[in-house]
Design goal:
By secondary structure, the protein is an alpha/beta fold. The chain is built from eleven helices and ten strands. Strands 1, 2, 3, 4, 5, 6, 7, 8, 9 and 10 form a ten-stranded mixed beta sheet that branches.
Length: 320
């Protein structure tokens, strides 16, 4: 009897130990962006949903955005990250943001794509109704993002399409929240904000001010896409911020990437849970989830866990 009781207690102890250890689930840190942007809000929503519904624990943290997320994945500080598709391309090719101290190409390639989730619009925000085109920014005080940031290069690309350079404006190198405060205080005339619309910082600005978005015409959009094919034409409708009219601009893809050493099962849990539960995640951006768009990246390979899920849906993606 005592032996039987001891055996029962031993089994119970083993079961409790297994429960404490879980079922082999992985813990991932998800680098998002600043707390006033879409990356942080949406990333937190996705992290919470995956954690609650799988044995993969995902913790979303604030970050300085795309470049930092790529670098932190490379160093092993985080395992997942939101990135702009253009910055991701810079990293993989070793251009622009990813050069060594001598200015030579320094590619970062130890990451892979999980999925493209939504479009990030290049939003040129102003409180001045007289600023109607990009050309009108000449001689103005304009926030163009932190030096070397993804927003900074987006701003240079758009200005360049109109024949303008950094020297043709009075540039300010501010993040989203600081840009909005500067617009409110009249310290700047316009700000480049690259994020999925509606963007929290711009919504806040529009709540007490008449906001205007500076649009791009088709001729200049075509010229921009010809030199930088990661852009695509996009429209921000008037109802998003209560602007007088729709705004035609360009956009890039917001992509989730993972370190190549993250397990296939963990990435599969992340991507499958998101796409299989569209409509239940609790964030407005989930309306943009689309399998064709998710698998549209061609210049960076997909993680095997993501490829496994997309293959189940009949879509083949490139893998490393």
């Amino acid at each position: 009897m005592k032996k039987r009781l001891a055996a029962i207690l031993l089994c119970a102890a083993m079961l409790l130990a297994l429960a404490a250890c879980g079922s082999g689930g992985e813990s991932l840190t998800f680098g998002t962006g600043g707390d006033s942007g879409t990356y942080y809000a949406y990333g937190g929503t996705l992290a919470g949903y995956v954690t609650e519904n799988t044995d993969t624990t995902v913790t979303a943290v604030t970050s300085n955005g795309s470049q930092t997320n790529i670098e932190d994945i490379a160093s092993g500080d985080i395992q997942l990250g939101f990135v702009q598709s253009d910055v991701m391309s810079y990293a993989y090719a070793g251009t622009r943001l990813f050069l060594d101290e001598e200015g030579n190409s320094a590619p970062v390639t130890n990451f892979s794509v999980v999925a493209a989730l939504y479009m990030e619009q290049v939003q040129i925000v102003t409180l001045n109704p007289d600023i109607k085109t990009v050309a009108d920014l000449a001689g103005r005080t304009v926030s163009i993002g932190a030096i070397g940031s993804g927003v900074y290069f987006n701003a240079l690309d758009v200005l360049g399409a109109y024949g303008l350079t950094e020297e043709d404006i009075n540039p300010q190198y501010q993040d989203f929240a600081t840009s909005v405060d500067s617009l409110k205080d009249g310290k700047i005339d316009a700000a480049f904000i690259v994020a999925g619309a509606p963007t929290t910082a711009v919504v806040d600005l529009a709540s007490g001010n008449d906001v205007y978005l500076v649009g791009l015409d088709q001729e200049h959009i075509d010229a921009l896409i010809e030199t930088s094919p990661y852009y695509s034409a996009n429209t921000i409708t008037a109802d998003v911020y209560g602007t007088p009219e729709d705004c035609t601009t360009v956009a890039i893809a917001a992509v989730v990437i993972a370190g190549n050493d993250v397990s296939e099962d963990a990435v599969y849990n992340f991507v499958s849970t998101i796409f299989e539960n569209k409509g239940s995640l609790g964030h407005a951006k989930e309306s943009e989830l689309d399998l064709d768009f998710a698998t549209s990246i061609t210049d960076v390979p997909y993680h095997p866990g993501a490829a496994r899920y997309f293959a189940e849906k009949g879509i083949e993606v490139p893998t490393a």
